[in-house]
Design brief:
Chain lengths: ~425, ~300
């Protein structure tokens, strides 16, 4: 009996070991076979968060397909992960030493991950390429750290105000508002029992911060003066609108897609949102008559916030040169223009942006966003930005909940101050 | 002794896979987590390696206002959930322990609530509690219990209650099944004896059912507390810890510290505190079992 047990165990072990070595062995053979027959076959791994079915996903797929056709020795392995998971996966990859070659990253996170050593310093390549000066300042700055390039910007976006033209007409409003006072009175006029004058997001995530920061800048304050009178005014501006029922207090739970739904269902007459919602509105709400205007100006003038994605190559990527060739190819104006049109995105390159043949020079809505980009500021607050953002989110939520603005802003300022660079 | 070990050796060999699994996926992460909680590990030195900084992380975290709030919320959440889950679960079990047509059908259909993935239940309840379109508010306003719809998840006074209601709903069926199984194993003769002695329903429950169910109830309570204490999914889906900090609980706070703020050291402190509390509860349980066996 004892012998039998031993034999079974040994047999099991042999099976396991041979199974392992077998798979390794055949794997090696395959790769060496490929190299022999087709010269150099290279696989480039890409991680991104372009949601399947979205317009940006269409663009990403089209880029990969066309490049593979033109370069038969390159194959791509693209992995999609949800926005929030990408950062976690990058951290795990960093710990395990298994990163892809190329990452598409939200631009406010670029510096943190560059500092963490996730991204490669590609200054030599960018300088040899010589096209860096074609890019707008803000987006380019987000891909740099200490004067070195850790990637290049791909597309930009900014927030502006969408409005329901029918409701404007019914309320007898002819001019779109330009200042805070005008904005507030227009929003008040539009507010009825069923309809909120304005909708924005105050959710406890980066989206909430993204939607609030423009007002902070419009008031003439910044993160290093979060406790100032100007900063308090910006928070009061929003709190008052919530208290007076112009903005639903439910904004505390809305992300930017929920805000869009409010606007689509005509529960809100105006909303703060980005250009990526244009294709959604055109496709899903063809009956809605809407327009876009620039963010209102406060004491400190007009301002919006810069969003967008950057390309980056990871530190120690196996196919670093091939990855760079691909990225540089996507930035060639004759590829970049049509592809961004397909993806419903706005260019970060001035030469393409000024080209009249594309929809950002023709479509009336997209044109507004292009204009808004000029006053859009990046979230360039160093590597502690993610934590700073959580304090801002808490401040927003406290304000919506009706707490005293002076106390909220002073406390938040004290929390934020040591985290700034 | 030695010979006995030798005879048993092959049997120990069979334990190796399980032991390896536990060591690799349970013990190593726990030990590593405790180590990390003494380091200043952040995103910036994740690659290069972090320094040991003694108790600094513990001092920082335990002093923050948020930790106190999170601990308080976790305790309120756990005790409220367990209390209602077990009480309602018990009542349902008592009901389903009777003979009536389609009894088995109802028993199994009750389990659906527990089998649905938390992501789905969480999203559903988020909509049910919605201030503008929510069914709960519709019912409350049409029945004129309240005048204005309540923004359940959007205000600090009600958010935690709403999340607790959701989790109670999810947990009832599981507790019910466990209690029902325990009830069915109870001997019939003691009930007959109680009847002969003239005990009424309430006395029977207090003096017969409850003492007999005690060991099983203890297990249900301890498992329930451990499971509920680790609440994460529902919070993430329904409120994200908000509004402000109204539904901030320890596991979610730890997640935020690690994967939003990238402060792994401080997150490790939270995980260690959770581990410590749960070990205490488990030890308390073991001690009570031991006492019971000794009697």
């Amino acid at each position: 009996m004892k012998k039998l047990v031993w034999m079974v165990l040994v047999g099991f072990l042999v099976l396991v070991i041979s199974a392992c070595s077998d798979s390794n062995g055949s794997g090696d053979e395959e790769t060496s076979g490929d190299e022999g027959s087709e010269g150099e076959q290279t696989t480039i791994k890409i991680w991104d968060y372009m949601e399947p079915g979205s317009s940006s996903d269409r663009e990403q797929e089209a880029l990969i397909e066309q490049y593979e056709e033109e370069n038969p020795n390159i194959t791509f392995e693209r992995t999609y992960m949800p926005f929030a998971d990408l950062k976690t996966k990058l951290l795990q990859g960093l710990g395990a030493g298994e990163l892809p070659d190329i990452v598409v990253i939200d631009n406010p996170d670029h510096q943190s991950f560059a500092q963490a050593g996730v991204f490669a310093d590609i200054t030599d390549k960018v300088e040899a390429w010589g096209e860096a000066d074609q890019y707008f300042e803000g987006p380019m700055a987000s891909a740099m750290l200490d004067g070195k390039y850790y990637g290049i910007p791909n597309n930009s976006n900014a927030l502006a105000i969408y409005y329901n033209k029918t409701m404007f007409e019914e309320a007898g409003i002819e001019e779109t508002p330009e200042t805070w006072e005008e904005f507030r009175s227009v929003a008040e006029q539009l507010t009825t029992d069923e309809v909120n004058g304005f909708a924005m997001s105050g959710v406890k995530s980066e989206e909430g911060t993204f939607q609030y920061l423009p007002y902070l800048w419009q008031a003439g304050a910044d993160l290093d003066s979060f406790g100032s009178e100007e900063a308090k005014n910006s928070m009061r501006f929003i709190q008052d609108m919530v208290n007076d029922g112009i903005i639903s207090s439910n904004m505390i739970n809305w992300d930017q897609s929920d805000v869009l739904v409010q606007f689509q269902n005509e529960e809100a007459a105006m909303m703060e949102n980005g250009p990526w919602q244009i294709p959604m509105l055109k496709e899903n709400s063809p009956d809605l008559d809407w327009g876009v205007f620039l963010m209102p100006a406060g004491e400190g003038g007009t301002a919006s916030i810069l969003g967008g994605e950057n390309w980056a190559i990871t530190e120690g990527a196996q196919a670093e040169d091939e990855a760079w060739d691909f990225i540089a190819w996507t930035q060639e104006p004759e590829i970049y223009g049509p592809m961004h049109e397909l993806g419903g995105r706005l260019p970060s390159r001035s030469d393409v942006a000024n080209d009249d043949q594309y929809n950002w020079a023709q479509d009336e809505h997209v044109k507004v966003f292009m204009e808004q980009l000029e006053s859009a500021k990046p979230r360039a607050y160093g590597t502690n930005y993610p934590e700073i953002s959580t304090h801002i989110q808490e401040a927003i939520q406290r304000a919506i909940a009706g707490e005293d603005v002076d106390t909220i802003m002073e406390n938040a300022a004290a929390d934020i101050e040591p985290l700034l660079p | 002794m030695y010979g006995q070990m030798r005879n048993k050796f092959p049997q120990y060999l069979f334990l190796i896979p399980a032991a390896l699994f536990v060591a690799m996926f349970m013990i190593y992460p726990i030990v590593y987590n405790v180590i990390v909680s003494f380091q200043d590990l952040t995103l910036m030195n994740l690659k290069s390696g972090a320094k040991f900084i003694g108790w600094d992380n513990y001092i920082n975290i335990l002093q923050t206002e948020r930790f106190g709030i999170a601990l308080k919320n976790t305790i309120i959440y756990t005790s409220a959930c367990i209390f209602f889950q077990v009480v309602i679960g018990y009542l349902m079990a008592a009901f389903l322990n009777q003979e009536f047509p389609f009894r088995n059908f109802f028993r199994s259909i009750m389990l659906l609530a527990w089998m649905t993935p938390l992501v789905i239940t969480g999203s559903l309840f988020k909509w049910l509690f919605d201030v503008d379109y929510g069914v709960f508010n519709y019912l409350l306003t049409t029945l004129q219990i309240v005048d204005e719809p309540i923004n359940w998840l959007g205000q600090q006074s009600t958010a935690l209650t709403a999340v607790i209601i959701t989790n109670v709903w999810i947990g009832i069926p599981f507790n019910m099944i466990l209690i029902l199984a325990a009830m069915q194993s109870l001997p019939k003769d003691v009930y007959e004896a109680a009847k002969v002695d003239g005990a009424n329903k309430f006395q029977t429950f207090l003096n017969v059912t409850l003492p007999l169910l005690r060991p099983q109830l203890m297990i249900i309570l301890v498992l329930g507390i451990i499971y509920t204490f680790k609440v994460f999914d529902i919070i993430l889906i329904m409120t994200g810890g908000g509004p402000v900090n109204a539904t901030q609980v320890l596991p979610f706070y730890g997640y935020e510290l690690a994967f939003v703020n990238f402060n792994f050291g401080e997150s490790g402190v939270i995980a260690t505190v959770i581990l410590f509390i749960l070990i205490c509860i488990a030890l308390l349980y073991l001690w009570m079992i031991k006492k019971e066996e000794a009697q």
